[in-house]
Amino acid sequence: RIAVPEILGHGGVGIVEAIGSKVRRVQVGDRVIVANTPYCGQCYMCLNGRPDRCQMLPNAGNPFLPVAEMADGTKVVQHNNEGGFAELMIPYEWYCMPIFNSVSAVELSVLACVGACGLGTTFGIAPVEPASDVCILGCGPVGLSAVQGARIKGASQIIAVEPIRARREVALKIGATVALDPNVEGKNLVAKVKDLCKGPTNRKFAGGRFWGANANGVGNSIGPDFVIEAVGGDSFPPKAEAGPDPTGLLPLQQAWDMVSGAGHIVTVSVGQKGNFSVPAAQWSNGSKNHHPGNMNGVSGLRDMQRFARLIETGQFNAKALATTTFPLDRAQEALQVVSDRTTVGAVIIF
Prior knowledge:
Elements: E1 6-7, E2 12-15, E3 31-34, H1 44-47, E4 68-69, E5 75-78, E6 96-98, H2 105-109, H3 114-123, E7 133-137, H4 141-153, E8 157-161, H5 165-174, E9 178-180, H6 182-185, H7 189-196, E10 226-229, H8 249-258, E11 264-267, H9 282-285, E12 289-292, H10 300-312, E13 324-327, H11 331-340, E14 346-349
Parallel strand pairs: 1-5, 7-8, 7-10, 8-9, 10-11, 11-12, 13-14
Antiparallel strand pairs: 2-3, 3-6, 4-5
């Protein structure tokens, strides 16, 4: 943690007012998404298929750039070198993604972090396949973006798991085919999801799956083709319906247990407290696939423009995520309602 004053906000949407002499990506007057994750296109991670882990992030050894001084001369920096909770952002070029679509700034703003994060779980490292079964654990703005991404990619069954009733209802409106309450399902959740995804036949020589359980009582062959975990741990107790495990470990365990033997698990949430275990033999003699990463392969310069087009054409409903707006002087209130989970997502407007 840096011990200096910091302007919060890791992303935003704005108009370019000035550029440095070496900047080529954007021009003065461009509308840009200042993304949570940079994309330089030249570092090791960008060149090796993980642009979402671009090494231009501050935690990769890049210094925080002071952008102001307080009355006593103390330097002020921006969170993630972006500082979205301000009327003026001074980001590096690699955070700026020019957008040429006629989409409102509020809608575009969800792409700076949560929208692109959720879409990345279905478009990125492990892209969802047509006619597949997908289960999304957690339907906050990231999970709801994943629900829509699965629909856009052509999944046939999209199972949303979320304790908050209002969010389950949103999930069903934007693409989920089934919505389950983890508090109601309890210990039966994994078995129920696996049964929903067992396929139309158990005839193995006809491409079907073995419906029975192995010696450990687990049906390895059945389950979703893709499980996206977007729950995370609770930093604050919510005012809306709480999930069954505030540590966030249970959804990780459930994701591992419910995915099919040849399926893909994408974990994207943060804030878990503690550890959980998976069978050691799976590392050498298993076939489940795990893909971690907060933006899951999103290539900012390419994908932000693609995602903006999905909003423009009506394929992606950004308004379902940007459910509340606040002026800058009410930013603390915006953070509170998101923490309470009484809204899906809040946007600071100027």
